């Protein structure tokens, strides 16, 4: 046993003060103070105060105070106070107070108070109070009070009170009270009270009371009371002011909103009245849900019928009928105009057809007259000489007329006729005209031609006469107006000139038609 003072501390069992502390090994006991603390190993007992704390390993017991706490390892017991807390590992027991709490690992037991709480890992038990709560992992048990609550993970049990509640994960059991409730995840059981309720996820069981109710998801069982009800999925029981959102069994004012297989598919509000107590003064909100839905359907039907009646108003129907009438009238006018156009076109086609037929008949008759004039046998009967026939035949051949050759029927004169043809004598024009005149005088062709021409002229004259009568009916009222005391002399003079000129033209046309008629009559009477 030694007691001294050194710069770097003492070795073995000693008592004193050193700058870097003491080093003690194998069943030694050290008591003293150092700047960097004491170092004790293997069943050592260290007691003292230093700046960075004491270092103890393997079944050591350390008691003292330090700035950064005491590091202890392997079945160590650490008791003391430090700024950052103590660090203990493997079946350690730590009791003390630190600014940032104690750090314990592997089957540790931590009891103390700290600003940020204790950190425990693997089968730990934590009891204490901290500002931000304790952090526990893997089969931990946490009991204490903190501002933000405790954080527990994997098969943890948490009991305590915090401002924001506790956070538990994986087969946890949480009992406590928080301002915002507890947050539990994966096979958790939560019992407590929070301002905003508890949040549970995946096979959770939540019992408690929250201002806004609990939030449960996926095979959860939630029993509690909330101002706005519980929000959960699959099997929820609770009471809320605005109802639950889930497959739920509950009572609320506005009923539940459920999905999938719901027990309360038709909810009866707790505040609704029975049918026997409903009267005309009953509020709509007090009616049963079925009655509300029926009234809503009636209102929708009324609105639909009113919309239909708006479309079928008499004013709209009358305007549509008038529009149809106008369209029908326009269509009738178009059809009448088309019909009149077709009739006029038909008349024009008929007139053109008649004109073509007339020209065809006249052409045929002209060919007949020419054929008769070219027939020598007829002229021999009429004492036409062979010389005249030869001269006419020569004239026709020289002028390239497409007629057949004219030959005499007397075989004795054929040689003489051929000689005369070779001499190319000129035809006497008077002979040709004499034959044509003779044919026209002794045939009905001339009578038919001029007869039809006169008929057409008479029809045109009748049309002109009808136009004059219409003009006269139009002018008569003007004459009556002009018979007043102060007639317009200039207007009268112009009108008289127009009428006089038209009358004179018609009279001259009539005279010409009369002269033609007289000539035709004379020609028809001649033998």
From TrEMBL:
Domain of life: Eukaryota
Biased composition (Polar residues): 69-84, 399-411
Official protein name in the record: Nuclear pore complex protein Nup98-Nup96
Biological source species: Smittium mucronatum
Any matching Pfam family: Nucleoporin_FG
Ranges of biased composition (kind: Low complexity): 47-65, 115-192, 412-426
Gene3D superfamilies assigned: 6.10.140.1350
UniProt region (Disordered), positions on chain: 47-89, 109-192, 399-429
GO cellular component, one term: nuclear pore
